[in-house]
Amino acid sequence: MVILIDGQPGNQLPVDDRGFAYGDGVFRTLSLRGGITPLLERHYAKLAGDCRALGIRPPAEADLRADLAQIADRHPDCAVRITVTRGSGGRGYAMPEAAQPRRIVSASSLPDYPAQWSRDGVTVRYCSTILASQPLLAGIKHLNRLENVLARAEWNDPQIAEGLLGDSAGHLIEGTRCNLFIIEQGTLVTPDLSACGVAGVIRQAMIEPGASHGFSVRIDHIDRARLENADGMLLVNSLIGVWPVARLGERQWTGFSVAHHLQEWLDELAG
Amino acid sequence: MVILIDGQPGNQLPVDDRGFAYGDGVFRTLSLRGGITPLLERHYAKLAGDCRALGIRPPAEADLRADLAQIADRHPDCAVRITVTRGSGGRGYAMPEAAQPRRIVSASSLPDYPAQWSRDGVTVRYCSTILASQPLLAGIKHLNRLENVLARAEWNDPQIAEGLLGDSAGHLIEGTRCNLFIIEQGTLVTPDLSACGVAGVIRQAMIEPGASHGFSVRIDHIDRARLENADGMLLVNSLIGVWPVARLGERQWTGFSVAHHLQEWLDELAG
Fold first, then answer.
1. Pick from A55, A149, A176: which is nearest to B24 by CB?
2. Is residue A234 less than 8 Å (CB to CB) from chain B?
3. Could you tell me if B15 lies within 8 Å of chain A, comparing CB atoms?
4. Residues 6+ apart with CB under 8 A from B1
5. Min Cα–Cα distance to chain A from B253, Å
6. Distance from CA of B72 to the nearest CA of A (A)
7. SS3 assignment, position A99
8. Would the pLDDT of B230 be above 90?
């Protein structure tokens, strides 16, 4: 499938790219649907913000739109990964003075999750991998993702849709590739990500003031007991949208009207 | 200068390499001197151990030796970076079932540090970047190095040879690219790296039982007060060898006989 490097078709990168050397860059995963990128403005804003947080010059929005149009031409329905690295550099951690950031946009097949997962809920598990607290990098979707790799290696069962990660204080933070919400008496509560975790675009859309989904939202610390006492649990990201959780170990949840309502709201928002 | 990818000359990597996607790999930096790689057995053991810690199949030592011989042919005196990634993979954090690790060995010029640094000592500073505690990754020289990039960006003054990093408990851990020792009444003390930091080959050679340098060695927690009260401080890595520290803010050290003795010991060890 199509890969664009700084707008040009290609599938090879220079060995001296700092993304490869140090994970010195950021990325986004999103979907193209019928040639359209849902929530593109939000994805661009997040990508540019993450770049700036690492002192990387963000790509121009027009360049990114041109890349996506080129991909949509060939693959109107696909998953897209956008990566921006600090670019090529010599040996050593010091940032090159005239770094020329590199932009890689690549298409892949949309994941073929079972259709009933978004309707009837998914099974999740706890991971034993604990996320390190690093406020300097928290929230950013950077390329240093070994914790996610280790956590995802904890299970093989394809019936388990996601693993839940917490911090050293026992607070739940996120899934390996999604953000979390619990439902408490009609309020959506999502973990605080000020010390670790990735602050995704769907989570952001759900928590921002004025979000029109009709629920009140809170950011808070959530431990396992609180999660298991909650009325429901949701997983969100740009590829899955909103999944209700049906099972976590012995705990089972039924009645997924909140998730289904949020799925409709998100479809409208993504318009 | 020469770059070898799985033993073949080249300077491009597939975009789908997981080193690039997630920092999913490990590396080593070492030197070639007169065509010889000092402490090669130790470097290989460290590289292989780091690979295994991430579930990556280590390269064969013979392949690595062949790469180094090929590089030594063209560049008998150079710095060498050896990188091993999990190899190519599709989208998603799950490790590919039949991952084929990739081995990249690249030469660059030896750094031209001022000769007096190893004789008369260097100036160092504290970094404000704090290392996150992640016991699962501590000690490993993996490709997730954004903390080092951020720390190295804290200063520009070329007179400052290194920045010192600590953890959230206030313990000193390492420099951005080296390990640390302090000297206390003739004993060498180096930070505990069980929760963060990279356990380098020179540090390992210095602390192992039976090391013939003649000093007793301890691993311990070291905070700033203890460091500043110490009789001396050393920076060690495979490119610099052993540097005495002459200055850290207002604190100055003189008399570098321990460092000079260890330099000679290391030269002999590296044979």
1. A149
2. no
3. yes
4. B74, B75, B78, B106, B107, B108, B109
5. 27
6. 18
7. coil
8. yes
3-state helix, strand, coil in chain B (%, to 5): 25, 35, 40
What pLDDT, in 10s, does the model give residues A11-41? Answer: 999 999 999 999 999 999 999 999 999 999 9
This model's pTM is above 0.95: yes
Residue A204 has pLDDT above 90, yes or no: yes
pLDDT at A91: 81
Task: Pull the structure tokens for residue A59.
Answer: 């790509």
Please report residues of A whose CB lies closer than 8 A to that of B13.
12-15, 20
pLDDT above 90 (res B260): yes
Q: What is the CATH number that goes with domain B3-108?
A: 3.30.470.10
Asked if B3-108 and B116-270 have one fold, the answer is no
Q: For chain A, give the percent of residues with pLDDT over 70.
A: 100
Number of helices (H), then strands (E), in chain B: 8, 15
Distance CA A265, CA A259 (A): 10
Q: Which of A150, A157, A165, A239 should we substitute to test contact with B (largest number of B Cβ atoms within 10 Å)? A: A150
Tell me which fold the domain A116-270 belongs to: D-amino Acid Aminotransferase; Chain A, domain 2 (3.20.10)
Residue ranges of domains in chain A: 3-108, 116-270
Contacts of B3 in chain A (CB under 8 A): 15
pLDDT, residue B75, reads 97
Cβ of residue A187 closer than 8 Å to a chain B Cβ: no
Per-residue pLDDT band for B124 (boundaries 50, 70, 90) equals: very high
